[in-house]
Amino acid sequence: MNRRSFLASGLSALVMPQVASALGDSAFFRGEIPSGPFLPFWESLKSYRCPDWFRDAKFGIWAHWSPQCVLEQGDWYARKMYIQGSPDYNYQVSHYGHPSKVGFKDIDHIWHAENWNPDKLMALYKAAGAKYFVALANHHDNFDCWDSKYQPWNSVNIGPHKDIVGIWAKTARKYGLRFGVSVHAARAWTWFEVAQGSDTNGPLKGVPYDGTLTKADGKGQWWDGYDPQDLYAQNHPIGAPPDAAYINKFYNRTIDLIDKYHPDLLYFDDPVLPLYKYSNIGLKIAAHYYNADQQWHHGVNEAVMTTKKLNEAQRQCLVWDRERGTSRRVEPFPFETDTCIGNWHYNLELYQKHGYKTARTVLQMLADVVSKNGNLLLNIPVRGDGTIDSDEIKVLQELAAWMKVNSQAIFGTRPWRVFGEGAPAIYAGSLGERNARSYTSDDIRFTVKGNTLFAIGLVWPESGKLIIKTLATGTKPANLGKIALLGTDAPVKYTRTTSGLEIELPVVQLLNDPFVLKIPINP
Is residue 361 pLDDT above 80, yes or no? Predict the structure, then answer.
C-alpha cells in the first residue's frame, strides 16, 4: 500500500487518539523517514517479523554504564542525590558537596573511564556465550554516551572524551557479536524534577539545587559554555507535560544514534514507546529504524526494537521486553527478558557482600526464558573506571564453562510444544523476579532443534533419577533415540512407562545445574 492510499484508508484511527486529533495525519510524515515498507502506524508495523539472528542468539550481555557508575552506589543516583535524607543525598554531601553546589553535571565531568579495556571485556562476554552485546547509550540522567550531534552533554565533549558507543560497536563487531543500544532518556523531563528543589531543613534550607542553572551561570566554571538545561531539562513547572522542543530533541538524538551506529537492536526503557502519551515520535522512530535497517542489509530486515508493556497486537510490531520477569507460557512472538546480576548501575556494596546472582541462577533463568520463546539480556555492571570486579569475572567464567558443554541446547533452538515441567514460575511479568521461587529437581525445560529434543534439568536430583512426565508412553514423539547427558560419554539408562520417561543419570554430577539431556526424536 502506498502512502496516499494508506492515509485514505482511514487507518489513522489506530494511532493514539490524542495525537491523531491534535496533529492530524500530515504531522506523521514530518521528518526524514527513509523509504521502505514501514509507515509510522501500528497497522503498517504489523508486517514486521523478528529476524532469525535474534531468535537464534538467545543470550546477550549488556553494559549499563554511564556517569552514575562513578559513585558505585547503584541505580538512580542522579535522581536520588537530590532527595534530602536519602542515602545517595548523604553520600553526595559527604563525598562531593551539597547539590546546590556540586550537582550531577559535575559527576559527568569526573567520569574518566581511565581503565576501560573493551577488547578484554568483549572477549569475556563472548566466551560466556553472548551472541549480542548492548551498550547503554543514555540513561534517565540525559547524558549521551556517544558523539551526539544534538546533546552537548555527551561523552566526547565531557568526561571520558571518548565515543563510548562507537568504540563498543566496533569492538562487539570485531568479536562477531551483534550490537545493540539502550535508550532511557525520554524520562529525564520528570525524572530530574527533584533537581529543581532544595533542602526543607538544615543550614542550606531553601537554597536551590543546581537543576535550574542556566548557561549564563557557568561563567568562569568548568562548564562555561554549556547549558545545564540541556542536561537537566528543568526549565518548566513541576508536573507540566514535555514540550515540543524536548520531544523533538529526543527524537533527533535517537535518529542520530541509529544513523551513526546502525545498531542491530534498539532498546527503549519505556512503556509501549518513548513519550507515547504525548507524541507519535516512537512510531516515527520505529518506521525510520526498520526502513533504514532494510537499506543497510540490502532489503532484508535485521532490526530488533524492544519496548515494554505491549499489548498482544503491539507484540507483532515490536519485541516485547520484560524487565526482571518472564512468562508462564510459550509466547507466540519472540520476547526478551532483561535482568542484572546486581543493581543496574555498579554497586560496590553488592560486590563487598558477594551479593550477585550466581552463574547457576543465571543459567536457570536462561533455560526458562529460552523454553518460552525468549532471549535473556544480562547486565554486567561496569565500574566508573571501565573495569568489572572479580566476582563478575567469576560469574562470566562459570557461564563460559557451562556453555562449552551445553550451548547446543540453547543457541539456534526453538520452543517445543510445551515449555517444560514443574510448578509455574511465580515471577511472570515485569519486575516479578524478586518473588521467584526456588527451582527443584521437578523443574525441566524443553528446547528443540530439528529432530533433537533437549530436556534441561534445572536442579540435579539427589536420587540420580529423573522422570519426564511429558514423554510417557502413548505421547508424541512415539520413538526416542539413544539419550545422552551432555558432557559425558557415560550411558544413560531409561525406560518409558505410563508415568513418564524414567531416566537413571550417571552417579557423578558433572557441572553446576542446569544439566542437559539430548534426546533424538522421531516426530
Answer: yes
What is the residue type of 345? Answer: H
Q: Taking each helix axis from N to C terminus, what angle separates 244-261 and 164-174, rounded to the nearest 10 degrees?
A: 30
Given a contact cutoff of 8 angstroms between Cβ atoms, the answer to whether 521 and 452 are in contact is: yes
- Distance (Å) of CA 371 to CA 40, 202, 376, 497, 517: 33, 55, 11, 25, 14
> DSSP 3-state helix, strand, coil percentages of the chain (rounded to 5)?
35, 20, 45
- CA 236 centroid distance within chain: 30
Distance, in Å, from the CA atom of 477 to the CA atom of 499, rounded to the nearest integer, reads 15
Q: In the predicted model, is pLDDT for residue 184 greater than 80?
A: yes
What is the residue whose three cell numbers read 535473556?
Answer: 376
Give the three cell numbers for residue 91.
553520600
Distances (CA, A) of 183 to 29, 138, 159, 495: 23, 5, 19, 52
Residue 144 per-residue DSSP state = B
Only one residue has cell 526543607, namely 200
What whole-number distance in Å separates Cα of residue 338 and Cα of residue 378?
A: 6
Quick count: other Cβ atoms within 10 Å of Cβ 205?
Answer: 10
The residue among 64, 4, 40, 18 whose CA lies nearest residue 283 is 40
Helix (H, G, I), strand (E, B) or coil at 415: coil
Give the span between the Cα atoms of 516 and 28, in whole angstroms: 50
Nearest by Cα to 303 from 281, 326, 285: 285
Give residue 86's identity as a one-letter amino acid code: S
Classify 502 in phi/psi space as left (phi over 0), alpha (psi -120 to 50) or beta.
Answer: beta
pTM over 0.90: yes
Measured from the Cβ of residue 257, the count of other Cβ atoms closer than 10 Å reads 26
Helix (H) or strand (E) holding 404: helix 390-406
Q: Is the pLDDT of residue 222 over 70?
A: yes
Helix (H, G, I), strand (E, B) or coil at 269: strand
| C-alpha–C-alpha distance, residues 367 and 359, integer Å | 12
Type of residue numbered 148:
S
Short-list 429, 403, 477, CA closest to 61: 403
Q: What would the grid cell of residue 316 be?
A: 507483532
Contact 432, 325 (CB under 8 A): yes
Q: In this structure, which amino acid lies at residue 308?
A: K
Separation between Cα atoms, residue 295 and residue 419, nearest integer Å: 36
